[in-house]
Amino acid sequence: MVIKDHAREIPDWVLSKMQHYCAYEERCIQDVKTKLRTFHLQEDVYDSIINKLIKEDYLNEERFAKVFAGGKFRINHWGKNKIYAALLHKGLPELFILEGLNEIDPHEYISGLREIISKKSKEVIEPDFSKKIKKLANFAVSRGFESNLVWDVLNFKD
User: Fold this and answer.
1) DSSP H or E run through 135
2) Is 134 in the same domain as 147?
3) End of a domain among 23, 39, 55?
4) Going by C-beta distance under 8 Å and a sequence separation of 6 or more, which residues neighbour residue 50?
5) What is the pTM of this model?
6) Where are the alpha helices (DSSP H) in 77-128?
7) Tens of pLDDT, residues 53-104
8) Which structural domain, as residue segments, surrounds residue 77?
9) Of the chain's two ends, which shows fewer C-beta atoms within 10 Å, N or C?
10) What's the domain count of the chain?
11) Does residue 39 lie within any of the structural domains?
12) Cα–Cα dist 154/133, whole Å
């Protein structure tokens, strides 16, 4: 029987790989844990590595939430609901999620919503205007935009 001691040494090569992993792109704790499991180390070593990465500022979930939210909005054209759900799925605290969402400029957000609706409108072939509007609304809501905001844009309100 092997007794685990709580003062595990962190293998240098693992710490180095994880520092590079976090420096390359913003990561959250869940991403780092998933990557660490590929090394098949003992669970208590994972926590030590994560704590060291946080202490050395390689890992910062507040920063991750802001970068993630901004990127998913600008690059993937996701709405706040979809971004919120993705960050929640990654196990981030709600405070960080809300801070990340607040980084999205409201004018840019409305403009982005108008842009995806306009682009989709050119693709949707529907002779019945009300059906076309419903299809556009469903599309925008499925991209994570808030229903009331979608309808305001579709009804041409500012």
Assistant:
1) helix 129-142
2) yes
3) 55
4) 29, 32, 33, 36, 59
5) 0.87
6) 80-89, 94-102, 106-123
7) 999 999 999 999 999 999 999 999 999 999 999 999 999 999 999 999 999 9
8) 61-102
9) N
10) 3
11) yes
12) 7
As a whole number of angstroms, the distance between CA 58 and CA 50 comes to 9
User: How far is the C-alpha of 47 from the C-alpha of 16, rounded, in Å?
Assistant: 15
Q: State how far the Cα of 21 lies from the Cα of 49, in Å rounded to an integer.
A: 12
Q: Can you read off the two tokens belonging to residue 22?
A: 């976090």
Q: Is residue 1 part of a domain?
A: no
Cα-Cα end-to-end distance for the chain = 69
Length, in residues, of the chain: 158
The predicted-structure confidence for 141-152, as pLDDT tens digits, reads as follows 999 999 999 999
Residue 157 CB partners (closer than 8 Å, separation 6+): none
Helix 106-123 / helix 129-142 crossing angle, nearest 10 deg: 130
- Total Cβ atoms within 10 A of residue 125: 7
Maximum CA pair distance of the chain?
A: 74
